[in-house]
Amino acid sequence: MAKHSLHIENIVRDLPDSPGVYQYYDKEGTILYVGKAKNLKKRVSSYFRRDESLVGKVRVLVQKIADIRILVVDTELDALLLENNLIKKYQPRYNVMLKDDKTYPWICIKKEAFPRIFPTRNRISDGSDYFGPYASGKMMHMLLDLIRQLYQIRTCSLNLSAANIRTGKYKICLEYHINNCLGPCEGLQTEDDYGQSLQEIRNILRGNISSVRQHLTAMMKAYADTYEFEKAHIVKEKIELLDRYQSKSSIVSPSIHNIDIFSYVDEPTAAYINFMKVISGSIIQAHTVEIRKKLDETPEELLLLAIIELRERFDSDAPEIIVPFKPDVEFPGVSYTMPVRGEKKKLLELSERNARYYQLEKHKQLEHVDPERHTTRIMEQMQKDLRLKEHPLRIDCFDNSNIQGSYPVAAMVVFVNGRPDKKEYRHFNIKTVEGPNDFASMEEVIYRRYKRVIDENQPLPQLIVVDGGKGQLSSAMESIDKLGLHGKVAVIGIAKKLEEIYYPGDSLPLYIDKKSETLRIIQQLRDEAHRFGITHHRKRREKGTIKTELTEIAGVGESTSTLLLRKFRSVKGIKTATLAEIQEAAGLAKGKIVFDYFHPGKTE
User: Fold this and answer.
1) How many Å apart are CA 9 and CA 48, to the nearest integer?
2) What is the distance of C-alpha 296 from the center of its chain?
3) Do residues 499 and 511 lie in contact, with contact meaning Cβ atoms separated by under 8 Å?
4) Are 128 and 109 in contact (CB under 8 A)?
5) pLDDT tens-digit profile of 457-492?
6) Per-residue pLDDT tens for 510-546?
7) How far is Cα 291 from Cα 275, in angstroms, rounded to an integer?
8) How far apart are CA 372 and CA 366, in angstroms?
9) Rounded CA gap, 439 and 538, in Å?
10) Does residue 14 sit in helix, strand or coil?
11) CATH assignment of 6-90, given 3.40.1440.10, 3.40.309.10, 3.40.50.10490, 3.20.20.150?
């Protein structure tokens, strides 16, 4: 507090122990931040304590604060709602906000005689009914098409007042003759009959399809009872149409009625939150938002912000909210559910898949538009997931290859900024280890590699990945300790079976989210090292096999073998060659020896 003015000190000292909203201003009077608190005194005081626990961005904010203003309210919920309104009004620099770059459409039932139904992006306070907004234009138009097939609603913009109809101002149009309209302009349809259709349309738009289906079923039976089979068949086709629409959107039990689902996907600099509204087992609305973090906000704070904003935006009054974890503030008459199994758990998982898909699409866009920021994001995620002290800008990964101890080799692949850097790849022929001993081979390779790095004064990687579990990791650490690199470079092992991450001195593995980019990059490293090592091992084995078969011939040395392989490409080619061809390549005497070895007793 000593670093701040006496003015700030006096304000903080006199704050009440009450719920409320606090606002920070800079010396120019610009609002910097709006926050809510259960206890204003405790919350605001926490920004000015003398310790190093505040993150860097918070320290920068605190240094800019020149004035503090508060608004005391009755409850924490009141504080939350007031905070949300003030953030939207002032848009402070250090507050996170849900922003969209487009306006979403609504379906409007116009307040007028014989109301029209049409899509719009402009909500006007004229008493009309608006349903939505629809994040998916496809869903909205599918609903409008369904309504137009089920009901004969006018599409004209005529003023169908009672006086205009009585005086015969309008005449029926083509829509009447093709049976899309019942002609209210000439008084051929009453407002009560038209209103009955509108009520059913409102039920469909609210997701209450079951009541509409019940009404149509009763109507079909009534027509059938009076032998009006043609009309009964028309209603039956409408019921089938309604069922087809419902089957496209129904994913769970119809008993799940009027609930909201919010899923949360986190990363170091942002959060992705998907919202779905379900009525009678059908998803009627779905939307995903990205929230950029400003001051190291908690997942609970960001989820609560999304719940407040999206429920208001989509005009939801659902009494139950499905969430992955419980937010800090509760709403009157609304319960939180954190399912562990069943249909609601499936809904939460579906919502999370949508959030992850949105996250992936954003990352792809970012990679094309701003590759540097994309790389920074990946490095931050890997540093967090792997508990590293710094970004793993360069990662070296090692793998051993041998078959029953023959031709043992090792491979090192290098990733820079999360991508392969193939010019840095290296092969190693194992020199000091006899037989199939992966542990000793790993120890040798790690020592040889980083002894050379030290001798040539090359930069160390930020992370070394060893393909294997605790045994291979321990062997690698033997060499790291001998070279005095302990604590200077991070080393981890990855076990193949369960994708377990092992750390030196820790017997318990770390399990990373199977869907995370961090695990994907580690797996890619491991697989690339394995591929690179196998390729080298195969070449060495083939070369060794060929040399052995030729050099075992008495009187034939390595130089003659090389001449023959250069001409005939393989041992098989030598076997099928004539004596003259072999002698042309290796000389008369050596050529005769080779020919007689592959063709004993044969003469040309």
Assistant:
1) 9
2) 20
3) yes
4) yes
5) 999 999 999 988 888 899 999 999 999 998 899 999
6) 888 777 888 889 988 988 888 888 876 566 655 555 5
7) 13
8) 9
9) 21
10) coil
11) 3.40.1440.10
